[in-house]
Amino acid sequence: MLQNAASHDSDLSVRLRTLDSTSEIRASHGLRIVPDGTLDESDPDLLVIPGGGWNDRSEAGARAEVRAGTLPDAISAHHDTGGLIASVCTGGMILAAAGILDGRPAITHQGAIDDLHEYGADVIDTRVVDGGDVLTAGGVTAGIDLTLYLVERITGTEIAEQVAQEMEYERSADIYRTDRE
Fold first, then answer.
1. Is 1 inside a domain boundary?
2. Hey, which of 17, 28, 31, 81 has its CA 20 to 30 A from 180?
């Protein structure tokens, strides 16, 4: 959806980045993804963290990344420089492990809500939480609402509505907003 928005004469540029150089990533259900490069090759305005692998305690995915610690540290460093961060599904658990959600409103996949509480987040029962510099979404379909909201926030309502219309998607108003600075 971000790439779709970028095709509408917006200033968006979408790139898939990894921490370490690799020719491909294998997603949780086997999909192969080819990254555009590493995070240290760019300084993105927006960093979107996907989830997966938390609730089933997979050897790969969000829980494994939290155990390893490298990704939460990189996300925290990006946040410390003023970068905008968003998470989808249990990607929010990686943000929580990075300490970014301490005492802040947030949401994650319903199967990880108790864990999000344990990390000290203020869990809000909604599809999307806009905490200003950090945005979180519930399960994977809430990621659609998050992305359309981000498109609107970055490029304006017109492009967000065009993308939603092309997708034949009715946007949700179930978004919790804090006052953005």
1. no
2. 17
Helix (H) or strand (E) holding 91: helix 91-97
Rounded CA separation 84/78 (Å): 8
Residue 12 to residue 174: CA distance in whole angstroms: 25
Secondary structure of residue 38 in the 3-state scheme: strand
- Type of residue at 158: E
- Report field, pTM of the whole predicted structure over 0.90: yes
Is 165 part of any domain? yes
Structure tokens at 36: 């555009």
Residues whose CB falls within 8 Å of the CB of residue 58, separated by 6 or more in sequence, listed in order: 28, 52, 64
Closest to 175 (Cα-Cα) out of 151, 141, 143, 145: 145
List, for residues 138-166, the tens digit of each pLDDT value.
999 999 999 999 999 999 999 999 999 99
Q: Amino acid letter at 132?
A: G
